[in-house]
Amino acid sequence: MSQCVTEAPETTSYSPYGLSFSPEELIDKIHFLQTEKKAVILAHNYQVPEVQDIADFTGDSLGLSMEATKTDAKIIVFCGVHFMAESAKILNPDKKVLLPHLGAGCSLADSITPESLDDWKRRYPGYTVVTYINSSAEVKAESDICCTSANAVAVVRSLKTDKVLFTPDRNLGRWVQAQVPDKDIAIYDGACPTHDVLRGANLLKTKQVFPDAVVIAHPECREDIVDIADEVCSTTGMMAAVARHPEARTFIVATENGIIHQLKKRFPDKEFVMADGCIGCRLHCPYMKVTGLEDVYLSLKEERYEIRVDAEVIQGARRALDRMMAVPRDN
Description:
By secondary structure, the protein is of the alpha/beta class. The protein is built from 16 helices and twelve strands.
């Protein structure tokens, strides 16, 4: 098996904003502004390493949503994608929530709209709508309860009804369906392109090179990947999964490549290999990677770009998120 490079290429000094600060200077300025403006920085596990390193908290969607409710900061700088910053605003309507880069969208979230959800609900009358947190505030507001990859199974199990409409991720929905076979789960046809691109043949080829490796996969992956995996869990769950295998030396990771940074920090004695056999050439989310240190600095300096959500939408979406957070997470 031919191997891709194992180290990321060096970053250039090019600045799209015309700034002339070194990375060290940017970090100092970010910390100064953060203290001055009483801001907290949240970063998803898929962000670039330098952004993860300057964050107060790193984690998955649920973990960061929970941290957003605990902070007494006046400003929340959410280094992730748009729907995550929206969720932070929904849970903290009186705080200023900033998304450092307007290009930080999500193809999966874009696959479900209020109109398409309304159509889906008409096709399945009487079904309880469980909406993955990777969705817009408007879609959350029209849902009965939200979930994340960390607690999707627990959320569906917690419902008194046996009829569930799961939206929008079909791969996560199928995985939940396999864990909760006693419920009738209708699954919307959306997917995360970053996870959906990986095929079992690619993973098996990587496993041939590392036959003793433990395979950990995100449930947004396709069914053939999940079937091969030793552990299926959220990004935060992956930290716990590695800890459950102290004897293992190597882990094959099937999720967005940003998670490797946190895994290496927490388990420096372990080897982590991307499931596609390289640094994650295929498992790369362009939306998660648009935010850099300069974006964080300018977001704090100019207090851009502020997330705004209508009060009526906040009310409905908050109800769905509160119901989610009341359910104990599985991993």
